[in-house]
Structures are given as structure tokens and as C-alpha cells.
Amino acid sequence: MDLVAGSGMVVVEGRRVPVLDSGGAPGLPVLVALHGTFGRGAVFERLARDLAGLVRLVAPDQRGHGWSEPVSDGYGRAAFVADAAALVRALDAGPVVLLGHSLGGITAYQLAARQPELVSALIVEDVGPVMRSPEVAHPTLDVRGWPRSAPTRAELGDLIRARGVPDAGYFLRSAVPAEDGWRLLFDWDVMMAVQAGGVGDWSADWRGSRCPALLLRGTESTLLPAALANRMVAERPGTTRVDFPGAGHWVHDDAPTELAAAVTEFLRALGLAAERPHEDTMNDGNGEAAGG
Questions:
Q1: Could you tell me which residue ranges the AB hydrolase-1 domain spans (predicted)?
Q2: How many angstroms separate the CA atoms of 280 and 43, rounded?
Q3: Contact 146, 188 (CB under 8 A)
Q4: 292 residues of the chain, pLDDT tens digit each
Q5: Is the pTM of this model over 0.90?
Q6: If DSSP codes are grouped into helix, strand and coil, which group holds residue 131?
Q7: Which of 2, 19, 208, 283 is deepest in the core (most CB within 10 A)?
Q8: Which residues pair with 12 in a beta bridge?
């Protein structure tokens, strides 16, 4: 294990992996958070602040996303699971709490099933055991030929919204300044490959682990229908489900306070969160999480 101090990088098997790392006191329980397609580790900044002092949250930029290094071995399920396993081992923190959103949630429950010694508890945000039609109406988003850059960040958002995306905010988390304006860190063709790798029936993996699990579902999401969520709880003992009324697929954005509260309650019940001495320091006077 080689942590690059202060750089937001973890060296994993010789490869530099960019991470959001909330840090904290030595000995804090570690929560590894895996973003979904089109995301990056930074999408969990708010959650990291809300859980500060309770856990050390480490969220990598996964292959094909964010500032991750180029890869040559594709974007299939096995590659994502192997990357997550290697990161957990590199952190050298014993079994970790593993949280995954969307495609990251599939990776999370696959790793818990295939290498259970690495995972103490599982948190799955708005994804089911099946990612295909007809169980999920639109398991992939066709983004071929979408614009990757624009003169301004606002114009880039307008171009994405013009493709039928009502809220481009999640995509714009991966927008950075460039010489000629703003560009996205990911490539749309790579995102098609990432999505294709996630299509399938992963029910055996969902049922395959025995650690405690928390299932988080946005009631307005189309990617985790109520019927699939019901099935997940029924098929896997030790699963707790929390629904978030009015939230869509990105629950951590639509209901950040409520999601952090559900995660905190789950972890505390398992003894997997530290005691924070001053709870009232978590938020500032406006109800926003304090921090950078």
C-alpha cells in the first residue's frame, strides 16, 4: 500500500488512482464509495462532509471516469470489480463498508459476493439485481456523438440538456476548464462501453453475500422500480430498505441530508461508525455541511 499524502491519489498495483479522501482521525472506519456511470469520486463530496468524524470516506475515480489513467483491458464487470478489490486492499484498512451508486452499486454487491472478506457492510444506492429490459425500461442511455466541450460550462450544460437530459448537473461534475473553454473528463464512447458492461442479470451476485446491506431507493427513479426493490429485500436476508420520497436516481443529490442520516443510522447500528464528539459542528447555520 502506498498512499500519496495530500495528493488525492492512491497507488494501487503501480497505478495512480485519483480519490476523494475525507481523512480524519487514525482508526476511523473506512467507507469506500463507488460512483455510477458518467460520475467521479467528487460526486460524494457532500456525503463525505456529512459523515465527517464518523467514517473516513474514500471515493475513487473509476476506470474511464474523472482523472483516472487510461486502461487497455476494457470496461466489463470483472475489471471494475478487480479495481475495487485492489483499492480496498491498498487502503490496508481491513474489511470496509462499501457503498455504490448505480453501476457502482452493482460493482459493490458483486465484490461483496465474490470477495466477502473485503466487505463488512454493503450500501447500494438506486440500482437493482437486473439491468436490462423489460425489468428496467431504459437500462442504458445512448450518448453516442454527444458534445464533449463548449466555450463555457453553461453552454456545455445547455448542449447536454438539448439531448433530452433535464438536469445536466451530474454530467457537469466531470467538466473542467480547457484551453478552448470547458471539456468533459470522460469520453462518450467509453461511457457506452461502460454501460454495455453493466447490462445483464446479476441476481446471483446480489444474493451471494451475507454481510448487512442497506438499499437506498429514490421513489421517482426509473432504474430501480418498486417491484425490483421488493424482490431485493425478499431474496437477500439482512437487507434494510429506505425509500426517499420525491428523489430520483441520484439520491445523494436529491435528498443528501436524508441519505446521510440513513447511512449514519445503519452504520451506528452495526458499530461501524465512530462517535462524533460534537454533532452540532457537522452543519453550519444555513443547514449546509461545513467544509471545503
A1: 31-262
A2: 24
A3: yes
A4: 333 333 489 999 888 999 999 998 899 999 999 999 999 999 999 999 999 999 999 999 999 999 999 999 999 999 999 999 999 999 999 899 999 999 999 999 999 999 999 999 999 999 999 999 999 988 999 999 999 999 999 999 999 999 999 889 999 999 999 999 999 999 999 999 999 999 999 999 999 999 999 999 999 999 999 999 999 999 999 999 999 999 999 999 999 999 999 999 999 999 999 987 655 444 444 444 333 3
A5: yes
A6: strand
A7: 19
A8: 15
CA 256, 272, 204 angle in degrees (round to 5)? 80
The phi-psi region of residue 95 (left if phi > 0; otherwise alpha if psi is between -120 and 50; otherwise beta) is beta
Q: Which amino acid is at 218?
A: G
CATH fold, domain 2-144+202-281, is: Rossmann fold (3.40.50)
Query: Are the C-beta atoms of residues 58 and 31 closer than 8 Å to each other?
Result: yes
Question: What is the torsion angle, in degrees rounded to the nearest 10, for the CA atoms of residue 8, residue 98, residue 67 and residue 165?
Answer: -130
Cis previous bond, 95, omega within 30: no
d(C-alpha 281, C-alpha 278), whole Å: 6
Angle (nearest 5°) at CA 268 between 262 and 274 = 120
